[in-house]
Amino acid sequence: MPENTETKPAEAAAPPAGPAAAGQKPPAKKPTESKPRVEPDKMRRRLIWTCIWGYLGVNFLMFLRFFFPRALFEPKTVFSIGYPSDFGLGVDTKFQREYRIWVDRVPGRLFVIYARCTHLGCTPDWKPAENKFKCPCHGSGYDNEAINFEGPAPRPMDRAHVELDATGQIIVDTNRLYVRDLKAGRDEFDNPGAYLPA
């Protein structure tokens, strides 16, 4: 028999399974490149632009604020306070907080004092123990009929217009004030509407 001289084709050399198989060191890894640092000039510019835009934004919001005003409470200027028989002699302070007035009844008259100091406009306090009004701002003093007698107040406190409606209730109008200013020759405390006979 003839000898089998066939040779198997040479197997292609397979690449080594790993670097260890080939006896070689692994290829050196490239160092990871870090993000480039922001230059100080760029940081400074960013900070400046942030401040500028922030400033403009705040100013724009303040500008818009004027288009949405807050609703302020304004008390009524014409209102009813009850019947003359509801008030005894002396000063009644129950309407001070709501309408900024005092109802004062003296023998023969009932009138309404507008609670505003004639010096700088503060609201005086009624001191029943001392039978006087005392302004907490600058110490002006008024007697029980709101006539000034101490402190810097130049004249008595004003009186509001009063009248009776068809049902007999007292209607007060704080838009119409009666003034006594003797230096100016003006005395309206005896005018009709400055008081009610009682």
Characterize the structure shown.
It is a single chain. With about 200 residues, the protein is of the alpha+beta class. It has a domain at about 80-195: Rieske Iron-sulfur Protein (3-layer Sandwich), CATH 2.102.10. Helix content is about 15%, strand content about 25%. It has helices at about 20, 40-65, 95-100, and strands at about 80, 90, 100-105, 110-115, 125, 130-135, 140, 150, 160-165, 170-180, 180, 185, 195. The strands form 3 sheets. Strands 1, 2, 3, 4, 9, 10 and 13 form a 7-stranded antiparallel β-sheet that branches. Strands 5-6-7-8 form a 4-stranded antiparallel β-sheet, with no helix packed on it. The chain is elongated.
List its salient traits.
four-stranded antiparallel sheet, 13 strands, 26% strand, Rieske Iron-sulfur Protein, elongated, single chain, alpha+beta, 198 residues
Using the coordinates shown, work out and report the CATH topology of the domain at 78-197.
Answer: Rieske Iron-sulfur Protein
The share of residues in extended strands comes to: 25-35%
Distance between the termini: 158 Å
How many helices does DSSP assign?
A: 3
Full CATH superfamily name of the domain at 78-197: Rieske [2Fe-2S] iron-sulphur domain
The unreliable regions are none
Let me know the number of strands.
13
Structure class? alpha+beta
CATH class of the domain at 78-197: Mainly Beta
Brief rundown of the structure:
With 198 residues, this protein is α+β, with helices and mostly antiparallel strands. It has a domain at 78-197: 3-layer Sandwich (Rieske Iron-sulfur Protein), CATH 2.102.10.10. The chain has 3 helices and 13 strands; from the N terminus they run H-H-E-E-H-E-E-E-E-E-E-E-E-E-E-E.
